[in-house]
Design a protein that fits this description.
homodimer; about 325 residues; alpha+beta; 10-stranded antiparallel β-sheet; globular
Chain lengths: ~325, ~325
Amino acid sequence: MPELRKDPIVDRWVIISTERGKRPFDFPPARPKMQRGFCPFCYGNESKAPPEILAYRPDGSPPNAPGWRLRVVPNKFPALKVEGDINRVGEGMFDKMSGIGAHEVIIETPDHESALEQLPVRNIEDCLWAFQQRIADLKKDSRFRYILIFKNHGEAAGATLEHSHSQLIALPIVPDLALQELAGAKRHYDYKERCIYCDIIAQERGSGRRVIEENDQFVAISPYAPRFPFETWIFPRYHAARFESSGVNQLPRCAQMLKNILLRMRKALNEPPYNFVLHTAPVKDNCDAYYHWHLEIMPKLTEMAGFEQGTGFYINYTPPEEAAETLRNVRT
Amino acid sequence: MPELRKDPIVDRWVIISTERGKRPFDFPPARPKMQRGFCPFCYGNESKAPPEILAYRPDGSPPNAPGWRLRVVPNKFPALKVEGDINRVGEGMFDKMSGIGAHEVIIETPDHESALEQLPVRNIEDCLWAFQQRIADLKKDSRFRYILIFKNHGEAAGATLEHSHSQLIALPIVPDLALQELAGAKRHYDYKERCIYCDIIAQERGSGRRVIEENDQFVAISPYAPRFPFETWIFPRYHAARFESSGVNQLPRCAQMLKNILLRMRKALNEPPYNFVLHTAPVKDNCDAYYHWHLEIMPKLTEMAGFEQGTGFYINYTPPEEAAETLRNVRT
């Protein structure tokens, strides 16, 4: 059983997996490499992945068989286990709990060759709807506090399968960075009674220097103090704490923006590996007045130096004004 | 001029370097690769590095010439500039300051072939004394708030020169993780009037499960909730907030422990790239009662997945009890 353990000094939760036996591991342990060749996410290979949780099947085909446009399946090698109780235990001054959580894979397309940004907008919109449906379902499980949605694209960004997919991890804790964002946003709200993200969006749209693209509902910016070169944040222009509150008027515009930004990166940065992480409100938090959901996209252009991992202190050689200008000037 | 910019939500400072012209950069920007061949840190090539700030020259040889045992020089491509005033400026709701700081390189040995852990203990002790001397000197500069000492060993850990060296960056801000450690340690102290690190050391030495090695002054442990496989922390067993307060009775023992731990990793993990970061009290903080300096050593065995960078939430497939046992069982 994996465990969630908390660092007692900085309150950082870490998943400690004790399941090495179930997956082929090297010693010293290495992150699993990209598997090539046989693909469990292609048509006809549905039985090689765990049974589907959700699928969009316009042709009415039976479950776990070809015909789908998008599928959600449990991760075959989950970081957390979905069955069991949250068992909170102290070990002297340390805190741990059983590693309960859901770990799912969103197979974004049956097309093995296309990256997400190469799919029609309608398919990207499907992914966003699938994220929403899975969030709505997992929120009913009282054990979960946060639903983390992210994508690793390309081996250097941590993908272990080529076929385009994103991932979801439902957690019994709230990750560190989400807690920090919530605390910062609350501090601003307590003082000003305004959403800090709305204030940032207004300032950025006013100056325009770090705006990459906007439409009637969304805006993409290079943040003022980015950790990584070409880091890009997509915000809804309207105030909303929760991704899952976006509806039929918003999600198609979000999908279009996501496609455009990823295509801009693809062209300007030579098809980079990338990650994105959905930042949305914790399941049970009453933060609707002051939090603002967004997508953070990070092309993986550089290796992190060790001291950056060790200190949380970053050196970025690409000023965001230059990154925004470069991405803005790409012809989409 | 580089800038220090603060993320207004999570209060994270980032160095934004605008000095791309001075260093050969690729586009898209990549972290500089390891330079091989000519070595500016070898005997006879002293003129290819900036003039030395400090050197240990047992033979009384002249500055910037062979004969030294250890040298400290300014980094030729500094992340921050040492000349100028801290100019704190607001940009609407954002905060920045000029990128003032010292960036120095500690050349640990004239021997191009040896890794730090392969040097005699006396040379490792030299490095620790050099860290202390540079801290003592830089503390006199009222612009600096934190002196960050770290080592990148091996290309995958961010080293750009093979010749064994460590680095120092004096900063006009306190890095994020240091602030988090200070806040956590203070919370514990306010409640219990004890140092949280002293409490952890006592508990770990009591159980022994995560202890790798100890001597009369230092102890090395696998932390309870490590972010990375085989992450190892070396603590002084006595309470001390500041590395620079360690004296002639302590530093030789610290050097011996550092050598032993790095040798254990070298043998058990097949000469891994690694980083270490010295965690010590900020220059001006009155935290002597509750902070406890230590060294954090992280062998670079896995690539960080993007969602770990994006969320600060880590999955570690090597439980620290297994890591400690593996390292403990290495014959040194």
